[in-house]
Every structure is written in C-alpha cells, then in structure tokens.
Amino acid sequence: MKNNRDFDDWLEKFRASISGYDYYVDFEKVVKNxxxxxxxxxxxxxxxxxxxxxxxxxxxxxxxxxxLECIPLLLAVRENEIYAQDKDGAFLYDFKNMNYSIExxxxxxxxxxxxxxxxxxxxxNLVDYALGIETGLDSNGRKNRGGHxxxxxxxxxxxxAGFIKGKNYFKEMYLRDVEKKWDIDLSALSNxxxxxxxxxxxxxxxxxxxxxxxxFYSGGGSKLNETARSYKMLSQExxxxxxxxxxxxxxxxxxxxxRENLRETFEVMENLYSIDDMEHGVMLxxxx
Length: 288
Fold this sequence. Notes:
By secondary structure, this protein is an alpha/beta fold. Helices cover 46% and strands 15% of the residues.
C-alpha cells in the first residue's frame, strides 16, 4: 500500500482537529470536585451579604474548621497551601491544618478580596461560583486530553479489527516488557538496554510483533522535526529485527510546517499512516 501513495496527496488529508464533544470540559470531574466541598461551601454561603463578615467568618471557623479547606478553590488554587506576602510579612497558609491564628486567616480573606466579593454580593452562591472555577481549571486539562485523543482513536480501530486488549494487543508497553513477553532481542532499539522506550500500543499476530506510536499535531514547532527524524531512525532499526515491525499513526495540520522532514520519513518508512488511512481499512491491511 505504501508505494502507491503520493506524499502531498496524503498530507493534504490531514485534519485540523480531532476534538470530540468531551474534549472541552470534563463535567463529570468538575461536579465530582465540587461535591467534595459542597457542604463547606454551603456553610460559607451564610456569609453572603453579611454586614459583619469578619466576625461571622470567625464563628464559622471555630464551629466548622473544615470549611477552611474549600478556600483555595475560591481562588482557583488546587493546593492546600497558599503563599502570600506584602510589607507586613510572608506567610504560607495551610488550609487543611490551620497553622496561624483565625485572625491571620481573616487577614488573608480580606487582602485577597474574598471578604469583599462575598459580603458585597458579587457572587450569590459559592457552590455555583466553585463550579465555574472548576470548569475554568479543567480547561487546563485539555492538553492532556488532546494528547490521548489520537491514542483513543487508534485504539478504536485496533478493536474494530478484532484485536482484544490484554490478549493480542497491549497498551503502553515498555520495550523491555516486549522482550520479556515474547523472548525477542530488541537491543538495537534500546541502545543496548540503555533506553527505556515505551510504545503506545503493541499488536501481536501469529508471525509478527507490531510496536505502535501515535500522535496528532494541530500546531507546528521544532518537536515535529525531531519526531519525524527519531521515528525514521526507529523504523530503520526495526527493519533489522526479524518478527518485529514499527508502525506510526500520525495526523494534524501542524505537519504542514514540517512537511519536508515528514516526507523524508514517509519515503523510507513502510508503515506510516494517517486517520484517513485508518478510515479506509489500513488496520486490516497491516495486521491481518
């Protein structure tokens, strides 16, 4: 199949994005995180509109000290400790185990603006406010989710080809584990055991071990050139090992900025495929 393809035509079909509906916000995770402190947030809701918020806050902390644990979330902070300093000194506030007086925590609430926000009805419900913050924080997880999207897509096609996880295909498998499981010498790939290479997937057929890497690049950068070069080398090294084949699934319009490096790899690598190739049954052509 490889020799029948034109590189420019192949690259032209690369996608701008593969983001699914669940890429943008993991609402299940958002709600779960807020649920952990829902009771504490509802207790602090009693401070909204308070005319004596500092005194009321002190009463709450004395009676319900655990309410302190939800304070970092109100500032979009994941950690239990928050560092703050000004002309009055430097402090590392612990919101899980109080390490200062309540008076000092009141200073924290005042200087960060939390007292002002709560007392002046800038927010009307701290649970809703926390949901908004968690949604914003979760957007930072898009990069990680994006990194797994191509893996998930490739895995879908591996399964559709009839392979079963843990039986004849394996996820995130180290080179040393491949050697041990199938008694094969892969030292040509590991620099004589010095490199701890991990493959996204390994597919095992009767006569071949297929080691698979996947990635998707929506934007350019120097990393793409290095990836193309290293996978070209990996493919050439793999060709020297009987019963072992390296397969690379990649896509994304980011490759257009590194097209010449990818072209070099395309011209020498037998098993380099895109999403369009998967959609046209390449899994069956390669593995079966």
